[in-house]
């Protein structure tokens, strides 16, 4: 028994196109409809046969759906929800894949009063964007967090859970505010820091851009991957999850100041203690299957 | 014509053991001698046949070497250099692989007056440590920076260049102070930031350690790799390259404060501009062969 028969995906970028491919692979009888605001992306989706039907408007994409997934930047959720409101079937479940949840929940509830809304966040991705960047196994072994609003029906939660598990994900239920705090430290702050240091490195006068690139294997290149992520998506995340991000940033800055002081005063023990402590976390991440155990993330060494 | 016939490696960790394996692969007729301060590492080196001879003291390891490479944490360079001084052949070239160079140059010159000293830094590594972590291809396509002191003989530079090129590296000559500035931004600051954020994440009360680990695929896990690097090595780097690291850290902090302000005031354009700019650097790093072009560094997705 499939949890849904007709799935509509609005936004055919990395995540939307990965869902489409994963549905095709794991639930081949599901009827897939898609829409993207960009006509070029719609044409590409047709060309690569990403979904069964590419609709020209968001409304036309949802008319007979039993699951609608909004895969657009969080700043665009309100407008897209408003654009499907008139055509949304009464029994459809509306979900999304946004990286912040409290703001998205509020936006969807305001735009779609009375609809069954179960926001979701698959914690998976790569630094690439667009309909060609997606792949069917993106969600395998990754967590998808559902943040059902107060009073959400149990049946809808169960069906959406079955859907994501069907795509290979593990599902966790969480309060939207707690989600936003957890993701602020595990995702949003890392992106903010990566964007910052790549910017700092490219603004130096004493060190040329070409030197930064040549010697990036010393550690810098690890930061450039997430600093190559989609700018619109990430602008929206920081604006939408402002309070939690600023809170985590404040703690990080305090810790950085403490390390700065340890370096200035030559306090080797303080440095050594922290550097020893941080090894354990990576070990746990690998043990729990959330990263590659091979050195260098499994990068090729010829 | 091999540049050296008898190579001595002091310190058989990740880098020392990688040099040994690379020499065996690319220059099989070279006689390799090794020493490590840790008796357990020496026993392991014998067991895995890492080098032709494992010596019990640093002095015994260098008696007939024409190239001696010190592969120990930069804080240990002075003591190791002093320990080989009495046994060092007059015509041997002494080099090292330390991540900071001005301090190492001064330490080696003080301990080995009159010796031919050409400090070096192969910009390569993984997060793993010890004699089993090394591999022969670690230096392939990576840069090795030589920082010959003023007045260093051209012949010695040419021979050491040929040695590293023989192991598959590309060689660049640089002033030690400039090296320390370049590496402060491309390697030392990234490590400091990675260690800091992993520490920040593990100290939170509102978010559990288990949540940090579960949802690390949102970006955090990228930082944990370099935060799992050898604690002794990195403590020494920050103490040895204090001025350049503090200078880069200051610039990073200023840039982070500017972003913090942009988030606080909802200045989406400032965020978008930076996030767009940082994409180009990753593209260049990939084009120049300094990182894997595949998404997620080529991590496995089943």
Automatic annotation (TrEMBL), chains A, B:
Class of this enzyme: oxidoreductase
Catalytic activity: prephenate + NAD(+) = 3-(4-hydroxyphenyl)pyruvate + CO2 + NADH
Domain Prephenate/arogenate dehydrogenase: 5-293
Any one Gene Ontology molecular-function term assigned to this protein's record: prephenate dehydrogenase (NADP+) activity
Gene3D superfamilies, per database record: 6-phosphogluconate dehydrogenase C-terminal like domain (1.10.3660.10), NAD(P)-binding Rossmann-like Domain (3.40.50.720)
Pathway participation: Amino-acid biosynthesis; L-tyrosine biosynthesis; (4-hydroxyphenyl)pyruvate from prephenate (NAD(+) route): step 1/1
Enzyme Commission no: 1.3.1.12
Biological process, per Gene Ontology: tyrosine biosynthetic process
Keywords in alphabetical order: Amino-acid biosynthesis, Aromatic amino acid biosynthesis, NAD, Oxidoreductase, Tyrosine biosynthesis
Family, similarity comment: Belongs to the prephenate/arogenate dehydrogenase family.
PANTHER family in the record: PREPHENATE DEHYDROGENASE (PTHR21363), PREPHENATE DEHYDROGENASE [NADP(+)] (PTHR21363:SF0)
Official protein name in the record: prephenate dehydrogenase
Organism from which the protein derives: Edaphosphingomonas haloaromaticamans
């Amino acid at each position: 028994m499939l949890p849904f028969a007709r799935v509509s995906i609005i936004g055919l970028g990395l995540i939307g196109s990965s869902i489409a491919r994963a549905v095709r692979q794991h639930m081949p009888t599901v009827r897939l409809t898609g829409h993207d605001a960009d006509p070029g992306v719609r044409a590409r989706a047709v060309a690569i046969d990403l979904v069964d039907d590419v609709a020209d408007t968001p409304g036309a994409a949802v008319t007979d759906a039993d699951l609608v997934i909004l895969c657009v930047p969080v700043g665009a959720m309100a407008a897209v929800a408003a654009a499907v409101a008139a055509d949304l079937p009464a029994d459809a479940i509306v979900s999304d894949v946004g990286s912040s949840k409290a703001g998205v929940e509020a936006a969807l509830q305001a735009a779609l009063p009375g609809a069954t809304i179960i926001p979701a966040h698959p914690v998976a991705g790569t630094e690439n964007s667009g309909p060609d960047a997606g792949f069917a196994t993106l969600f395998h072994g990754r967590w998808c967090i559902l943040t059902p609003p107060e009073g959400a029906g149990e049946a809808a939660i169960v069906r959406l859970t079955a859907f994501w598990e069907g795509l290979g994900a593990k599902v966790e239920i969480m309060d939207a505010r707690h989600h936003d705090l957890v993701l602020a430290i595990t995702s949003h702050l890392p992106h903010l820091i990566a964007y910052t240091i790549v910017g700092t490195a490219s603004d130096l006068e004493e060190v040329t851009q070409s030197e930064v690139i040549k010697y990036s294997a010393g550690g810098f290149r690890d930061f450039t991957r997430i600093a190559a992520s989609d700018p619109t998506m990430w602008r929206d995340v920081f604006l939408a999850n402002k309070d939690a991000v600023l809170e985590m940033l404040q703690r990080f800055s305090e810790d950085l100041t403490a390390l700065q002081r340890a370096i200035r005063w030559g306090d080797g023990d303080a440095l050594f203690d922290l550097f020893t402590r941080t090894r354990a976390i990576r070990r746990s991440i690998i043990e729990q299957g959330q990263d590659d155990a091979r050195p260098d993330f499994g990068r090729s060494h010829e």
